[in-house]
Amino acid sequence: MATFVSEKPPGSAGGVNNIQYAPRGAATEQTHVLSRTFENGIWHAAGVYEALRPVQAAVRPDLIVGHSGWGSTLLLRQLYPEVPVINYFEYFYRPTDSDLDFRPDVPVDEIDRLRSPARNAMILLDLEYCSAGYSPTDYQRGLMPDAYQDKLRTIHDGIDTDFWKPGEAGFGQARQIGSLKLAPREKLVTYVSRGLEMMRGFDVFMKAAKVLVERDPDVRIVVVGSDEVAYGGDLRHTGGQSFRDHVLSKDEYDLSRIHFVGRVQPTQLSLLLGQSDVHFYLTAPFVLSWSCLDAMSCGAPVVGSDTAPVREVIADGENGRLVDFFDHEGMAEAALELLEDPATSRKTFGAAARETVLDRYSMDVTFPRMAEFYESVAEAGEAS
Q1: pLDDT digits (tens, 9 = 90+) for 147-198
Q2: If I label 123, which of 60, 129, 301, 334 is the partner at 20 to 30 A Cα–Cα?
Q3: Which of 302, 276, 66, 69 has its CA nearest to residue 187?
Q4: Domain spans of the chain?
Q5: How many other C-beta atoms lie within 10 A of the C-beta of residue 160?
Q6: For the chain, first and last CA: distance in Å?
Q7: Angle between helices 351-360 and 363-380 (to 10 degrees)
Q8: Residue 157: closest CA among 376, 374, 361, 358
Q9: Which class does domain 175-360 fall in?
Q10: Helix (H) or strand (E) holding 342
C-alpha cells in the first residue's frame, strides 16, 4: 500500500491511502514579506509531521517523495531517519537574468528583487537534505546551484499521448469547438495559458493576433485561460482591471474573430488543440508549461518564444517555429507562413512536434525512467 499525504480528505483509492494533514498556521501581515514563503513552508512541514507521527508505526515507507519548496518532506527525517528522500525541484529563483527582470518594459520593484533569493530557503534545505532529486527539464534542473547538480536528474512528468493526440477534423473540413463553428476555409489559431498574464506573453500574443486577423480574413483565434494572474505582479500595472481587460483597452481588436473561452476541461482542450492549425506558446524564462507539450502531442504546429525553456523542446524550422519573445510582427509572420497551407504544416511541423513528444516526453518513455530512478534510490536504502 502506498501512502499519500495531502490536505484532501482521508480515504483510499487504487491501492493508495491518503492521510490528511492541515497546517495550523501561516504567515501573517506581521511576518516580514521576505520570509513569508519560508514561514508558510514551515507550517506545512509541521502539519505533515504531525499527521504522520501518530501512525508512524503503521506507515513504514521504503522511499519518501515530495515536491520541493512546500516543506512537505523536510521534517520527515525525524520520523524516518533511514528512509531516502527524493524531491521534485521545479524552479530556483534569481533576482537578475531571470523571469523577474526579463521584460524591460516592466520595472522590478526593489522588494521583489530582495524577495527572490529568500524564496529559495526551503528549496535549499531540500537540496541539502534530500537523497536525490529531479526536475522536468534540463533548463529547470540547470537553475539549481552547481553544488547540488550531482544529486539531480532530468525526468519529465510525462505526457499522455493517447489523450493528447491529433484530431480527426482539420483544415478544409467543417469544424466545431463547443459553440464555435468553423467553415472549411477558416483557419484555427490557438493560445492557452492558465492565466492570461505577462509571464506567458499574453499581451505580446494579442499584438500578434491583431496582425493575423487583419492580414488573413479566414483566421479565427481561440484563447483559453482565466483572468487569474498566477505569476508576477501584473495587477500592479492595470489600474484595477484584469490584465486581459488592460491589454484589450490599449488597442482595438476584432473580438468577433478572437474568442475568449475561459478555462475548459481537458477533454475539450485536447479536441481544440487536435484541430488547431497554429498554436502560440510564449513564456519568459520560467517553468515550461504542460500546454506547450500537450499542443505538440496533438500535432499542432507551434509558434513559440525563443526563450531557453522553449528551445529545449522546439528546434526552429524542424518541429516548430521560434521567434523573439518581443517580436509580435515576427510571430505573426511565422504563423501566416504556416497558415498558407495548414494541411501541409500539420503534416510536417505538426507531425515532427508529436514525434518529439513521443520520443522524449511520452509517459511510455518517462514513467519507466522515473520508476527506475525511484527504485534505485530506494534500494540504496540510506538517507543522505
Answers
A1: 999 999 999 999 999 999 999 877 878 888 888 899 999 999 999 999 999 9
A2: 60
A3: 276
A4: 2-158+363-380, 175-360
A5: 14
A6: 25
A7: 20
A8: 361
A9: alpha beta
A10: helix 342-345
- 319 is written with which cell numbers? 518541429
Q: CA 29, 35, 37: angle at the middle one, nearest 5? A: 90
CB atoms near residue 199 (< 10 Å): 22
CB atoms closer than 10 angstroms to residue 15: 7
Please give the distance of CA 272 from its chain centroid, rounded to a whole number.
19
CA gap 333, 338 in Å, rounded: 9
Strand order in the sheet with 132-135: 64-67, 85-88, 132-135, 152-154
To which residue does cell 505580446 refer? 204
- Quickly tell me which residue has 489600474 as its cell: 239
380 or 265, higher pLDDT: 265
What pLDDT shows up at residue 179?
A: 86
Q: Is the pLDDT of residue 24 over 60?
A: yes
Pick 2-158+363-380's CATH classification: 3.40.190.10, 3.40.50.2000, 3.40.50.1970, 3.20.20.480: 3.40.50.2000
This model's pTM is above 0.85? yes
Q: Which residue has the cell 526563450?
A: 307
The distance between the two most distant Cα atoms of the chain, rounded to a whole number of Å, is: 68
For residue 187 the three cell numbers come to: 483557419
